[in-house]
Fold this protein.
Amino acid sequence: MKFMKVLQENKQNQKEKNHNSFGMAVEKFVSSHPGEKVRTETLRASQLYFLCPRAFVLGYFGLQEREVDWLGRLRMSTGTFLHEYLQDRVLGPMGILFGNWKNKDEVREGFHPDSEKAIYEIVNQKPLSWKYEEYRSTDPKYKFSGHIDGKIDVDKLRWIDDNKLLFQTEPLKACKRLQEMTAGRMSILEIKTTSKASLDKIGKQGYPPDYYKQQAVIYQKMFDIDSTFFWYFERDNFDQTAFIYRHEEKWWNEAIRKAEYIWKCVREKKLPEAKKLCPSSKYNNCKYCKNTWTEKEFDDYISKSSNVD
Ligand code: SF4
């Protein structure tokens, strides 16, 4: 069937990225794992900017198999490790990361429950008693979904800025003061990794690219917080930059425009028009727009879906 053929095209077009036999063998091993069955029932905030309405609606009505992408998995695991490291071993014990802290018996919301113990465990290479749990949420109206890297206390960030000298001379004393402060205004934490060229550009301009602005404002609405603290790392040398990005309503309006159109198509069981709200002018007739489909073909396709009421 034409729809299924187009949906499977990606797999056939996958290019081999490794040119040495060992790299090729590893890639083949990982890629031979069975694909993960996924159903796309929400709009992930982190992907919305580049989301093609046609692709989403086709995915919504069909159970898709997510291919195992070796490089994608590597990148994602590296990012996950960096997030955990910064949350559990740096920002948490420092006393500025707010959220849910879990140990084997309980979950506590607030700043790190026992910074001293965490530092003892880190320096003695013992398993950590407290681990950070990221907040997850789904917006009931537009069905945006996602998770945030955490909440950062903006007043504590300002206090750090005002007390740079104390951090340079007596960092433990400075952190003790931070840990004793009560919670102030919060900002959403976004940790990102990027290339050197991109870090230099973002550091100079002091704001993120448009796709991260859109992701940030969706989370701001979902968590009712009006700013995002971006912390960028460069992948080779871990140079970094950080800044606060404040809410811009225009990115929220763009997001809901796309969401409303997609859910209307889903409700009415219509395939979105070719190129309508296309994520990029560079995508000229890519696979979901290349072919014209008849209404009958689309009806046949969704009639096999378990996502139809
Ligand atoms: S060209 Fe068509 S299929 Fe490709 S991204 Fe744009 S709308 Fe989607």
About this structure: The chain has two domains: 2-68+252-303, 70-247. The first strand starts at residue 36 and ends at 38. The two ends are 23 Å apart (CA to CA). The chain is about 50% helix and 20% strand.
